[in-house]
# Entry
Amino acid sequence: MTAPGSPRAHGKVRHLFVKTFHGREASELSGGESLLCVQGWGIEGDVHANRLSPRQILIALASDLEKFAIAPGSLHENMVVSLTPEHMFRPGAAILTDRGVEIRLTMYCEPCSRISHLIPKLRDLVQRRGILGTIAKGGSISAGDLFTLLPDRYALLPESPTRRFRDFVAAIPPGTVVRYADIAVGMGVAHSFVRAMPGYIKRNIHQGLPMHRIVNANGQLLAYLPNQAEKLTAEGVQIERAKVDLRSFLWQG
# Structure
């Protein structure tokens, strides 16, 4: 937590966007509309809302967009803000709006091929595409809202994907299961990462983690996990024909 009297920055919300479907452009809110932020979930109606995810909202600096001549919304961000001083805008900080919303900044959003048409050298946007975050306290946000940024309010997420994998698996509650895709969401990595998940499981199988709580996309048990059925049954998970009913036992955060 940030101590009283610690340095802080002050900012203003300039633009707001909601993305309702993957593959579609985000829609900018008009002057009278607000983002409805739900604690632990994300933005109401946004495709990235997910209780497991550290990527519930993306915030970009107006100065970065201006520097690279990029139109607001083009980086798939949800918020464009101005901030002084800007060097405090980094993972681990918290944004507290004057209306009570708190956003935890979790990680830099990595530049990807979807935005390569916006800039000659994609690497120039490393740590300049914006910062992802989660909704720590809910409420509404409108363009023009003022906020305070508190640096170093939260612990940093591990940079190592292996560490993030282990932390996520360790947090799966007894009596529930997750799929490969759920782990990718919880790690904050791209969906394509699911192809690497069997390797992560096998390399970490002796780390004392509850790997037996991982199933495939259809809820089927994994052949390479020893005694998975017995361990899940002992936790109260019902299994029929080597398959778990995801409607009853899927952990959603």
Remarks:
- Residues 5 and 251 are 40 Å apart (CA to CA).
